[in-house]
Amino acid sequence: MGKIATMEYFRVPPRWLFVKITDANGNFGWGEASLEGHTQAVEGCLDAWAERYVGFEADEIEHIWQMSWRTSFYRGGPVFMSALAGIDIALWDLKARTLGVPVYQLLGGKVRDKLKVYAWIGGDRPGDVEQQALARKSQGFTAVKMNATEDIGWLDSPSALHSAVERLQTVKALGMDAGMDFHGRIHKPMAKQLAKALEPHHPLFIEEPLLSEHIGGIKDLAQQTSIPIALGERLHSRWDVRPFLEAGCVDILQPDISHVGGISELRRIASMAETYDVAIAPHCPLGPLALAACVQVDCTLSNFAIQEMSLGIHYNAGTQDLTAYTKNPEVWEVKEGYIELMKGPGLGVEIDEEMVRRESRDAKAWVSPGFLGPGGEVREW
């Protein structure tokens, strides 16, 4: 391996940001720095780091990670860590490709040959879950996730929660498991009611029952319910995760590999979680590079539980799906709730660079949706 020669990024539909790093010997690797709704900010960070890291040894992944973290003074947060993730993942891909092995071989080797997965149903304003769940079942999934509610007022009518229970019952009646994503939309007066209403129907987990800035409220809720509590997509480093582990208020940790500084940091977070008997189920409603990177880490973890996939997610409707931009989309085939571990070198996906370059021309940055309440007030999305 040689020194880093070029670092490029590509904004591609529906809302992804790919990174390609090439060394002086022509070896290359791909990463993903997608940060939904903040693409331009991440691109600015990548511009600065491209100037800095050209000329660094491409195989010194940890040195580059520590340089990024420790010499920046202002560190962490979603933009910084997403940019770092794109670089980190690309460097792991480059190194493993050059050595002719999957990334997981450089992480100590695999502990499993296939991974349990789930997919989304229902959309941002959840509906039609029976038909969508049946479609997922026909694709080979045995578990799904859906938004628990539409937007909810700080103190809303309890009747606003009834549909969440009905949708969970509908999916469970099909013989499938379902995670219920509160999405940080629901505030404490309603969240505690919804958790209690869902509990008799045994959801797989409840996700982000409160926003992560309310750790005290999450701790209180964890003591009131037997439902596993999942969270972590808005925690961006092991330092962000630490207080939740210490408070004992998370059962399933969901770090996003594209938001936590890549493969290097996801590995460290997973090891921390293991010491607290907390499962890992990486958040990944993103592109094929982020998912492939998750798979490379997941298969090495004893505390891995289940992996999110963006196949057919509502954000991809009318544009590119998970199977786009790669020459081997068959790696995402689901059988009896599992995907097989990829066997190719690096991340195990082969990028169609011609398509990436073509689709990135004049690609628009994705803008996060928002919700307004009946009084014109901004509600959590």
Q: Secondary-structure map with pairings?
A:
Elements: E1 4-12, E2 16-23, E3 28-32, H1 39-53, H2 61-70, H3 78-99, H4 103-106, E4 114-120, H5 129-139, E5 143-147, H6 162-172, E6 177-181, H7 188-198, E7 206-207, H8 215-224, E8 229-231, H9 238-247, E9 252-253, H10 263-274, E10 279-280, H11 288-298, E11 307-309, E12 338-340, H12 353-360, E13 371-372, E14 378-379
Parallel strand pairs: 4-5, 4-11, 5-6, 6-7, 7-8, 8-9, 9-10
Antiparallel strand pairs: 1-2, 2-3, 4-12, 13-14
Helix pairs in contact: 1-3, 2-3, 9-10
Task: Label this structure with key terms.
381 residues; Enolase-like, domain 1; TIM Barrel; 2 domains; 12 helices
Name given to the CATH architecture of the largest domain: Alpha-Beta Barrel
Uncertain residue segments: none
CATH superfamily of the largest domain: Enolase-like C-terminal domain
Task: Note the beta-strand portion.
Answer: 15-25%
GO molecular function, one term: galactonate dehydratase activity
Protein name: Mandelate racemase/muconate lactonizing enzyme C-terminal domain-containing protein
InterPro entries: DgoD-like, Enolase-like_C_sf, Enolase-like_N, Enolase_C-like, Galactonate_deHydtase, Mandel_Rmase/mucon_lact_enz_CS, Mandelate_racemase_C, Mandelate_racemase_N_dom
Cofactor: Mg(2+)
